[in-house]
């Protein structure tokens, strides 16, 4: 969707921070390493990390849809 709406080359290589910037958001990337998604139990910090990523993706998608 971002590639279609923003018409940028290589946008599929962007991370969340770069995509957020493209739609006018200023987010900070977590300095933590990505959690091990194969783990059976996650810490509170890992759950917050996942929630932040999911919510950021939602906000980026909403901004893209609002642009068109």
Question: How much beta, percentage-wise?
Answer: under 5%
Sequence of secondary-structure elements? HHH
Number of domains: 1
Radius of gyration: 14 Å
Largest sheet descriptor: none
Distance between the termini: 11 Å
Question: If you average the pLDDT, what whole number results?
Answer: 86
Number of strands: 0
Write structural notes for this entry:
GO terms for molecular function: nucleic acid binding. The protein has 68 residues and is an all-alpha fold. The chain has one domain (1-67). The chain contains 3 helices and no strands. It has helices spanning 2-6, 16-22, 44-67. The relative contact order is 0.20.
Overview in brief:
The chain is mostly helical and 68 residues long. Helix content is 53%, strand content 0%. The chain is built from three helices and no strands.
Describe this protein with a few key phrases.
68 residues, mainly alpha, 53% helix, elongated, RNaseH_sf, nucleic acid binding
Topology of this structure?
Elements: H1 2-6, H2 16-22, H3 44-67
InterPro entries: RNaseH_sf (IPR036397)
GO molecular function, one term: nucleic acid binding
């Amino acid at each position: 969707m971002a590639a279609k709406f923003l018409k940028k080359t290589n946008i599929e290589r962007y991370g969340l921070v770069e995509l957020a910037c493209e739609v006018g958001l200023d987010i900070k990337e977590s300095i933590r390493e990505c959690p091990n998604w194969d783990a059976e139990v996650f810490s509170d910090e890992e759950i917050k990390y996942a929630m932040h990523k999911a919510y950021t993706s939602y906000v980026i998608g909403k901004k893209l849809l609002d642009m068109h």
